[in-house]
From TrEMBL:
<dbReference type="Pfam" id="PF00561">
    <property type="entry name" value="Abhydrolase_1"/>
</dbReference>
<feature type="domain" description="AB hydrolase-1">
    <location>
        <begin position="17"/>
        <end position="242"/>
    </location>
</feature>
<dbReference type="InterPro" id="IPR029058">
    <property type="entry name" value="AB_hydrolase_fold"/>
</dbReference>
<keyword id="KW-0378">Hydrolase</keyword>
<dbReference type="InterPro" id="IPR050266">
    <property type="entry name" value="AB_hydrolase_sf"/>
</dbReference>
<protein>
    <submittedName>
        <fullName>3-oxoadipate enol-lactonase</fullName>
        <ecNumber>3.1.1.24</ecNumber>
    </submittedName>
</protein>
<dbReference type="GO" id="GO:0047570">
    <property type="term" value="F:3-oxoadipate enol-lactonase activity"/>
</dbReference>
<dbReference type="InterPro" id="IPR000073">
    <property type="entry name" value="AB_hydrolase_1"/>
</dbReference>
<dbReference type="InterPro" id="IPR026968">
    <property type="entry name" value="PcaD/CatD"/>
</dbReference>
Length: 257
């Protein structure tokens, strides 16, 4: 499948080291708003909508993690960026893992949040894709957003949760299903030892979608990887614990004072 010309937003000083931010399944580049201001003081920040999400076009048929990685390479080439720090959450983290293993010369440092090298449950992902195609992503929104935040956070932030639910519902049905297929078929366990980029792995302690044991396995498979668990936090840990995650990103990417 040819690369998708994904929609991207670029912020921060020209000539600064580049940080590329890759979103979760069902989210858009807007999920990184809590981190952008601090990162853009020191980095050239590139956010993009994963294929089939936000303002990026949707492919025809099922995607693979290689397709997602190819989209990132095409974006970096389009922006004339030879190398970037790569930060990804959930499917964005899976994309970062594959890119770092397959194209190590393009990845400086890597941060993987609330993600997995082997999500498992391929039947469940096929079912989710089928639901998106037959009933629309709105049929999935309530269950998905229920895994994104802890109950206490959701209760305290109803407007934010409602906005995220609307984002899922607004996702292109075929694009969402296509990316579900990529997650369901994913198995990067034998590629982790090929990753040479300095890596930070971040877990949400209360993540029901991809619990901390998934991130523990990633950190164990990458030589020298650091593992951080933030709490309380479910799947979208960068929103639930914005300062903790932002500080960790700045420290790992070399931007901390």
């Amino acid at each position: 499948m040819p690369p998708i010309d994904v929609h991207a937003v670029v912020e921060g000083p020209e000539g600064a080291p580049v940080v590329l931010l890759s979103n979760s399944l069902g989210a858009t580049l807007e999920m990184w708003e809590p981190q952008v201001a601090a990162l853009a003081e020191r980095f050239r920040v590139v956010r993009y909508d994963t294929r089939g999400h936000g303002r990026s076009p949707s492919p025809e048929g099922d995607s693979t993690v290689d397709d997602l990685a190819d989209d990132v390479l095409a974006l970096l080439d389009r922006l004339r960026i030879p190398q970037a720090h790569v930060v990804g959450l959930s499917i964005g983290g899976m994309t970062g893992l594959r890119l770092a293993a397959r194209n190590p010369e393009r990845v400086d440092r890597l941060v993987v949040l609330c993600s997995s090298a082997y999500p498992g449950n391929p039947d469940a992902w096929r079912d989710r894709a089928a639901t998106a195609r037959t009933q629309g992503t709105g049929a999935l929104a309530e269950a998905v957003v229920g895994r994104w935040f802890t109950p206490a956070f959701a209760e305290a932030n109803p407007e934010l949760v409602a906005r995220m639910r609307e984002t899922i519902t607004a996702s292109d049905d075929e694009g969402y299903a296509s990316c579900c297929a990529a997650v369901g078929a994913l198995d990067l366990r034998d590629q982790l030892d090929a990753i040479t980029a300095p890596t930070l792995v971040i877990s949400g302690a209360d993540d029901p979608a991809l619990p901390p044991e998934h991130q523990q396995a990633i950190a164990a498979g990458i030589r020298g990887a650091a593992l951080l668990t933030v709490a309380p936090a479910a799947h979208i840990a960068n929103i639930e614990q914005p300062q903790h995650v932002t500080d960790a990103l700045l420290a790992h990417l070399g931007g901390a004072a």
